[in-house]
């Protein structure tokens, strides 16, 4: 029989990995809390239509990356490839955008059928922010400052660069598209197949091309920033001023267009040179047209998504994971003989009295030797040993596993006091 395996590009997160994830997520969530952002959770499945209508038919995601299948009723469903569309759908459906602003965040798995490699997976995780109802540029700056703080407080500020662009209004983009198509059409033969196709379907995406020859052609191409409408130009200038006032450094990158169709005005990415080709750790922008496009009232909005796997790789590569993240067992309770019931009563008593204590209560019997071996392996500092005599007498033996100290037999109340004192100084 064929061995069962996980799907390629979809990773198990093992117990030894989770302390790092908890640290990363905990740090980011605490920062979101400090900015008064609130969490939203949406289903991982949505009607396929939602992503087609928001992300855009002619994008990498919709053209070739979505996990789409027919439900048993024949509805076409898709595993979410990103968080913004679902968030907009949920806000609209639940009246969260009616006459009010929202500052929201989400965290969870996203799914894209891409070629798996370092920093690129088929199931990956994003923490993202979406804010609604504010035209900016102050809120654009807040969102950028928030992302900057996340990277700073994780210790990776010096390894990332903020790339910033304005995509202008949709009218300005349409004008610019024409200019770009005019320019590139002269060199149609020199473009690769993808870009030739995009010349008709989605010319702005050519700016994003990784092909060096195409990039060269683009050096002399018209620049989106030179085609901005007045409103977008002012917005961009004011945003830059606020970032300057906050000492946030950035590079203006006129070729930054983002892979999704719904962006306009502010667009940005935080990129690093530490992760090879998968260098974008955070990406986002303004999408004032999306809510209306999905059937709601016109509502300005801006957001970003952080790829958590990439961010974690960056923390690892730059030695920014704190020591001792793994919380280990502090006390190992061994149970000798017919004392199972007593042992579990004692364990619960200890957990009631010492809520911070990390206690492992041995189950399944075994010899003294084998239980002590397990206690040692658990890295516990102390072992409690409950034998039949102790259980009878309401006592328990206390053994120091990492110090030369004699074993003692104590009443339960005294054990609680001893443990409280031993671990009071955070010595674990
Ligand atoms: P890329 O250009 O690397 O494909 P993208 O533009 O498709 O990225 P977005 O849709 O903007 O990415 O998603 C936001 C962030 O999510 C990315 O910056 C990245 O950190 C992360 N991300 C996107 N796709 C993947 C993936 N397949 N595996 C891991 N992380 C990903
Ligand atoms: Mg992509």
Structure description:
There is one protein chain. The chain has 428 residues and is α+β, with helices and mostly antiparallel strands. It has two domains: 18-168 and 228-317, BirA Bifunctional Protein, domain 2; 331-425, 3-Layer(aba) Sandwich (Rossmann fold), CATH 3.40.50.800. 38% of the residues lie in helices and 20% in strands. The protein has 15 helices and 16 strands. It has helices spanning 18-34, 48-55, 60-65, 84-93, 138-153, 170-185, 193-201, 212-218, 230-245, 290-293, 308-317, 340-353, 368-377, 388-393, 412-424; strands at residues 38-39, 45-47, 67-70, 76-79, 102-111, 123-132, 160-166, 251-252, 266-272, 280-286, 301-307, 331-335, 359-361, 382-386, 395-400, 408-411. The strands form three sheets. An eight-stranded mixed β-sheet has the order 1-5-6-11-10-9-7-8. β9 and β10 (280-286) form a beta hairpin. α1 packs antiparallel against α5 (138-153). The radius of gyration is 28 Å and the shape is elongated. It starts with 17 loop residues before the first helix and ends with a helix. The relative contact order is 0.12. The model has no long low-confidence stretch (mean pLDDT 94). Bound molecules: adenosine-5'-triphosphate (ATP) and magnesium ion. Magnesium ion binds next to loops.
């Amino acid at each position: 029989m064929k061995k069962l395996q996980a799907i390629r590009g979809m990773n198990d997160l093992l117990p030894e990995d989770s302390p790092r994830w908890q640290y990363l997520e905990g740090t980011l969530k605490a920062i979101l809390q400090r900015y008064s952002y609130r969490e939203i959770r949406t289903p991982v499945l949505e009607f396929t239509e939602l992503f087609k209508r928001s992300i855009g038919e002619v994008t990498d995601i919709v053209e070739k990356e979505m996990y789409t299948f027919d439900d048993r009723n024949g509805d076409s469903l898709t595993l979410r490839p990103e968080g913004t569309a679902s968030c907009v759908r949920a806000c609209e459906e639940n009246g969260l955008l009616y006459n009010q602003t929202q500052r929201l965040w989400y965290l969870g798995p996203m799914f894209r059928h891409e070629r798996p490699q370092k920093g690129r997976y088929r199931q990956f995780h994003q923490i993202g922010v979406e804010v609604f109802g504010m035209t900016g540029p102050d809120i654009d700056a807040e969102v950028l400052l928030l992302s900057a703080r996340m990277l700073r407080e994780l210790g990776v500020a010096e390894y990332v660069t903020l790339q910033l662009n304005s995509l202008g209004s949709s009218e300005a983009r349409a004008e610019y598209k024409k200019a770009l198509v005019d320019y590139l059409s002269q060199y149609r033969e020199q473009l690769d197949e993808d870009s030739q196709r995009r010349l008709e379907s989605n010319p702005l995406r050519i700016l994003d091309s990784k092909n060096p020859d195409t990039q060269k052609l683009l050096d002399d191409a018209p620049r989106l920033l030179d085609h901005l409408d007045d409103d977008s130009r002012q917005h961009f200038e004011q945003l830059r001023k606020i970032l300057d006032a906050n000492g946030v450094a950035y590079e203006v990158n006129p070729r930054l267009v983002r892979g999704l169709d719904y962006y306009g005005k502010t667009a940005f990415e935080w990129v690093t040179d530490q992760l090879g080709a998968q260098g974008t750790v955070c990406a986002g922008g303004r999408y004032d047209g999306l809510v209306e496009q999905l059937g709601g009232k016109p509502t300005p909005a801006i957001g970003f998504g952080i790829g958590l796997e990439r961010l974690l790789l960056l923390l690892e590569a730059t030695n920014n994971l704190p020591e001792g993240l793994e919380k280990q067992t502090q006390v190992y309770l061994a149970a000798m003989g017919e004392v199972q019931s007593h042992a579990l009563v004692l364990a619960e008593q200890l957990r009631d009295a010492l809520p911070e204590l990390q206690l492992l209560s041995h189950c399944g019997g075994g010899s003294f030797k084998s239980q002590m071996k397990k206690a040692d392996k658990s890295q516990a500092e102390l072992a409690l040993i409950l034998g039949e005599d102790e259980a009878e007498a309401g006592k328990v033996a206390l053994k120091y596993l990492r110090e030369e100290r004699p074993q003692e037999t104590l009443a339960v109340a005294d054990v609680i006091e001893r443990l409280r004192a031993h671990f009071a100084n955070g010595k674990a």
